[in-house]
Amino acid sequence: MPRLFFGLEIPEAIKTSLLQIKTQVAGARWQSRGQLHLTLAFLGQVEDQQVAVARDLARGVTQSAFELNVQGLGCFGSPEKPKILWAGVSPENELRELQKNLATALTDNGFTLENPSFKPHITLSRFRHPAGSVASLLESHQGTLFGLMPVQDFVLYKSTPGPGGSVYTVTERFTLQP
């Protein structure tokens, strides 16, 4: 059974900017270039026969293309004991609409999402215990603009566990309306 999620690819120039954030912080497991993405809907393990259903539902999502600013940093958990360090995106309205349309199509047709509440972000690092503070990183990059991200499509990723973390492979691309 494949492990799947829908998400947005991050342009290479923005990945380069985001990877420059990497610094020594206790417990940090930094994401690699190939792991940087924005999750829209995490399906987890999916029965083989359900993969085609998920793809068909995604093809039915109609929305116009839009742009996002990748800007600033935040964290889940407290800055002194973070669980995840992330880069933010704005404005969120069109992105939230895309995520809601996709999530509704999936859940109305029997899929269970592993991330039912949606907080738009790009994960930069996950932390093991004990985690070091990211307060200075948050402060120094509060308003940093990492780039403008055109959103012209979303993708279905297959996640394969590996020794250096999961490897994400695009299995299909779903184009938004111009």
What does this structure look like?
The chain is α+β, with helices and mostly antiparallel strands. The chain has one domain: Cyclic Phosphodiesterase, Chain: A (Alpha-Beta Complex), CATH 3.90.1140.10. Helix content is 23%, strand content 40%. It is built from 4 helices and 9 strands.
Q: Could you estimate the helical fraction of the residues in percent?
A: 10-25%
Largest sheet: 5 strands, antiparallel
Please state the structural category.
alpha+beta
Strand content: 35-45%
Total of helices: 4
Shape: globular
Distance between the termini: 34 Å
- Total beta-strand segments: 9
Runs with pLDDT <50, length 5+?
none
Look at the structure and give the mean pLDDT: 96
Write out the CATH superfamily name.
Cyclic phosphodiesterase
The gyration radius over C-alpha positions equals: 16 Å
Active site: 37, 121
Motif (HXTX 2): 121-124
Enzyme class: hydrolase
Catalytic activity: a 3'-end 2',3'-cyclophospho-ribonucleotide-RNA + H2O = a 3'-end 2'-phospho-ribonucleotide-RNA + H(+)
Helices and strands in order, then pairings?
Blueprint: E1 3-9, H1 12-19, E2 28-30, E3 37-45, H2 48-59, E4 66-78, E5 81-90, H3 93-107, E6 122-127, H4 135-140, E7 145-151, E8 153-160, E9 167-175
Antiparallel strand pairs: 1-3, 1-8, 2-6, 4-5, 4-7, 5-6, 8-9
